[in-house]
């Protein structure tokens, strides 16, 4: 099995679409389904799913693009480190173009900063071993998909006795922000398309408190088109029958309890903390910080930096977009002051950002 | 040669420079006798009122990658740029910028690949230049090639010539070169190897033009920016709308898998041996058949059509029946987080 083309079968897709259309035909209003994860947002645009759905179903994008929800102060701190001559910044590619208050890592790279794109935090450890005279700082962003491997990089660095490998930690966790969004009276979410790979780590059962406390349906859904359509079908059926349960469409990857090994590694190195979500604000207990036992690898603890006062860009509505309250086209900066070449807000930067997806793939 | 690496002296214009030229570069690249070596190459016997002239610089890193190296890339790229205008490539110049410390064995390998590529494309390397920069001021080797081509016909092939109804063909899988270089640069451990598609397309173009003549409207090689960016350029130049079929676009399975893992879109990944052919609808089947009969086009496919005159939109019908817009690549494609 190749795990891709099998889940893009046009005939099966047509069948699912017809079934969804038939199921919601008599539904009087519109049901609002939120895809939490940025990769879902991208998939919806990439496969042109929105236009195929009946008008009774409205998809909105949530706060699951890791780059987009990273606060501007974090980017400013990374920029401050990048300006130090003995520092190499190691980062996932997405972070490069994210605008800070007055600069970005891409801009600093052009000015001479040493910034290296890596594909795994372990590559950053290898980079540190190659450059014993430098401080290598890995930008630790993302959700539970990246947190265990970042934890793994710290454990590996400790085992190898590295004193010059650091992580600037800003990992965030699910599903805490989903509870915050559900409680927001302005935003009526009828069902959640729950993240695929995050759920592989935390397990489908992690969404039970949401279904039980808020009575909002949750379906863990894969990223391929057939996954997406099946997830939407399951959510629609729950909404129609007034149920609120956790269902798992992505059983080939996601287990009810998740990945125990990854969770153990994550808990070994990180502990929960309150954290800021760009555009959304502080959400208690939704972040991860490095435990005291591993403080030697915590960039923020070990390495002083002069960080500028964070200054959000005027008129940027990323916050409203991340909460699903407006669509990119409703932001006055979209396609005008804010483009992928010259992004004002983070949603336009990441390949998982809602605005980037709308800019790149939107059909009107 | 006693030294086995490039020294600053190799670019001094003095004895070491002559040694490098006479013992390595000229014997590898050309048949020009020493008595014929002057400041400029003289091209004789050209009977054409139109010439094509192009230039391109090559700075790929790493310089060796599966499927080729910077040398054959520099020849094929310039040969293809000439061929896409409908011209027959005739002569090429080679400018080498070498970094101090480059192993001569590597330079030799690059030069041999250039010569082999030039022979295969039946184009002559007629003039050149070599400079050496201090260590750290370059990156092993940069190559500039310029090329001159002649026209054996009166056809006007241009990016502005696409017309509503035309069909769009590609001669094989998209994204092979970009992924091969990326995988090799980043040491990505893929289950099966991806090789660059670097190759000259001039012979395939000659056959197409001979057979189909003026029904061939546009030829373009989708190098940097990939198929998506190139089609968008054509749509804008011709002021037409283009519609692609996702399930018709050939993509190598390993390339598709690697792109999915890294969050890249094969439509935007570079090619070095691919061309987009836009032909009148009635000749599309003939073009496809002809391309598939040639080694450069064995995996050719019809991937879309020009749908209407307009202001240059490119749309793609996705495999599951949805529609999405195709825009030019903004900046570089950056690998995503998760």
Concise description?
The complex is a heterodimer of chains A (364) and B (338). With 364 residues, chain A is of the alpha/beta class. In chain A, 35% of the residues lie in helices and 17% in strands.
What do you see in this structure?
The complex is a heterodimer of chains A (364) and B (338). By secondary structure, chain A is of the alpha/beta class. Chain A is built from 14 helices and eleven strands. Chain A folds into three domains: 121 residues, HypD, alpha/beta domain 1 (Rossmann fold); 147 residues, 3-Layer(aba) Sandwich (Rossmann fold); 44 residues, no CATH class. Chain A has a five-stranded parallel β-sheet. A four-stranded parallel β-sheet of chain A has the order 4-3-5-6, sandwiched between helices. In chain A, strands 10-11 form a two-stranded antiparallel ribbon. In chain A, helix 2 packs parallel to helix 14 and helix 5 packs parallel to helix 6. Chain B has two domains: 143 residues, PurM-like, N-terminal domain (60s Ribosomal Protein L30, Chain: A, 2-Layer Sandwich), CATH 3.30.1330.10; 160 residues, Phosphoribosyl-aminoimidazole Synthetase, Chain A, domain 2. The longest helix of chain B has 18 residues. Chain B is an alpha+beta fold. In chain B, helix 1 packs parallel to helix 3. Chain B contains eight helices and 13 strands. Classes of the chains: A alpha/beta (364), B alpha+beta (338). The interface between A and B is large, with 47 and 29 residues.
Topology of helices and strands:
The complex is a heterodimer of chains A (364) and B (338).
Chain A: H1 10-24, E1 31-37, H2 38-46, E2 57-64, H3 72-82, E3 87-91, H4 105-110, E4 114-117, H5 121-130, E5 135-140, H6 147-159, E6 165-169, H7 176-183, E7 191-194, H8 197-202, H9 208-214, E8 218-220, H10 225-241, E9 246-248, H11 260-269, E10 270-277, E11 281-290, H12 299-302, H13 318-322, H14 354-361
Helix pairs in contact in A: 1-10, 2-14, 5-6, 6-11
Chain B: H1 15-29, E1 51-58, E2 64-65, E3 68-69, H2 70-83, E4 88-99, H3 104-121, E5 124-133, E6 141-150, E7 167-170, H4 176-186, H5 202-212, E8 216-220, H6 226-238, E9 240-245, H7 253-262, E10 276-279, H8 284-293, E11 301-309, E12 314-317, E13 323-326
Parallel strand pairs in B: 4-5, 9-12
Antiparallel strand pairs in B: 1-6, 2-3, 4-6, 7-10, 7-11, 8-10, 9-11, 12-13
């Amino acid at each position: 099995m190749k795990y891709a083309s099998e889940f893009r079968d046009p005939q099966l897709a047509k069948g699912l679409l017809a079934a969804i259309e038939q199921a919601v035909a008599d539904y009087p209003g519109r049901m609002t389904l939120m895809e939490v994860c940025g990769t879902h947002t991208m998939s919806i645009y990439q496969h042109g799913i929105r236009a195929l759905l009946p008008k009774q179903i409205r998809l909105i994008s949530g706060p699951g693009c890791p780059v987009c929800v990273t606060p501007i102060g974090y980017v400013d701190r990374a920029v401050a480190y990048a300006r130090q001559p003995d520092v190499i910044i190691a980062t996932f590619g997405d972070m490069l173009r994210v605008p800070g208050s007055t600069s970005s890592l891409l801009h600093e790279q052009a000015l001479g900063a040493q910034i290296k794109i890596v594909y795994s935090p372990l590559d950053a450890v290898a980079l540190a071993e190659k450059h014993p005279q430098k401080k290598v700082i890995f930008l630790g962003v993302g959700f539970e998909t990246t947190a265990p491997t970042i934890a793994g990089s710290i454990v590996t660095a400790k085992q190898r006795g590295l004193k010059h490998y650091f992580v600037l930690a800003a990992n965030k966790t699910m599903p805490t922000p989903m509870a915050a969004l559900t409680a927001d009276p302005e935003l009526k979410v009828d069902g959640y398309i729950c993240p695929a790979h995050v759920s592989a780590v935390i397990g489908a059962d992690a969404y039970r408190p949401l279904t039980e406390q808020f009575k909002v349906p949750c379906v863990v859904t894969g990223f391929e088109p057939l996954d997406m359509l099946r997830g939407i079908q399951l959510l629609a059926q729950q909404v129609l029958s007034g149920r609120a349960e956790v269902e798992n469409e992505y059983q080939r990857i996601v287990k009810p309890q998740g990945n125990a090994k990854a969770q153990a590694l994550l808990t070994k190195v990180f502990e929960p903390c309150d954290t800021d979500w760009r555009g959304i604000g502080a959400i208690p207990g939704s972040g991860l910080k490095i435990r005291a036992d591993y403080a030697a690898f915590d960039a923020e603890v070990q390495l002083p930096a002069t960080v500028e006062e964070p200054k959000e860009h005027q008129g940027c509505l990323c916050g409203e977009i991340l909460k699903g309250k407006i669509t990119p086209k409703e932001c006055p900066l979209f396609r005008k002051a804010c483009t992928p070449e010259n992004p004002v807000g983070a949603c336009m930067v990441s390949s998982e950002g809602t605005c980037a997806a709308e800019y790149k793939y939107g059909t009107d | 040669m006693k030294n086995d690496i490039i020294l600053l002296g190799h670019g001094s214009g003095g004895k070491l420079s002559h040694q490098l030229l006479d013992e390595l570069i000229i014997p590898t690249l050309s048949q020009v006798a020493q008595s014929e070596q002057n400041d400029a190459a003289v091209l004789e016997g050209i009977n054409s009122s139109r010439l094509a002239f192009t230039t391109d610089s090559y700075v790929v890193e790493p310089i060796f990658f599966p499927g080729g190296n910077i040398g054959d890339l520099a020849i094929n790229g310039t040969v293809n740029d000439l061929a896409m205008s409908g011209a027959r490539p005739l002569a090429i110049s080679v400018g080498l910028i070498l970094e101090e410390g480059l192993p001569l064995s590597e330079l030799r390998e690059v030069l041999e690949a250039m010569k082999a590529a030039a022979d295969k494309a039946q184009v002559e390397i007629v003039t050149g230049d070599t400079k050496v920069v201090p260590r750290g001021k370059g990156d092993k080797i940069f190559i500039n090639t310029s090329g001159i081509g002649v026209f054996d016909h009166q056809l006007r092939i241009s990016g502005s010539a696409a017309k509503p109804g035309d069909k769009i063909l590609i001669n094989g899988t998209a994204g092979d070169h970009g992924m091969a270089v990326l995988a090799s640069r980043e040491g990505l451990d893929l289950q099966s190897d991806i090789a660059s598609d670097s190759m000259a397309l001039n012979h395939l173009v000659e056959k197409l033009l001979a057979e189909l003549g003026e029904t061939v409207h546009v030829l373009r090689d989708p190098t940097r920016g990939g198929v998506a960016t190139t089609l968008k350029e054509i749509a804008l130049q011709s002021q037409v709308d283009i519609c692609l079929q996702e399930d018709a676009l050939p993509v190598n399975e390993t390339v598709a898998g690697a792109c999915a893992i890294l969050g890249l879109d094969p439509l935007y990944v570079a090619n070095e041996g691919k061309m987009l052919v836009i032909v009148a609808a009635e000749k599309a089947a003939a073009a496809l058949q002809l391309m598939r009969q040639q080694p450069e086009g064995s995996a050719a496919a019809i991937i879309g059509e020009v749908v209407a005159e307009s202001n240059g939109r490119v749309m793609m019908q996705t495999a599951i029946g949805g529609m999405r817009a195709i825009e030019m690549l903004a900046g570089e494609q950056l690998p995503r987080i998760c």
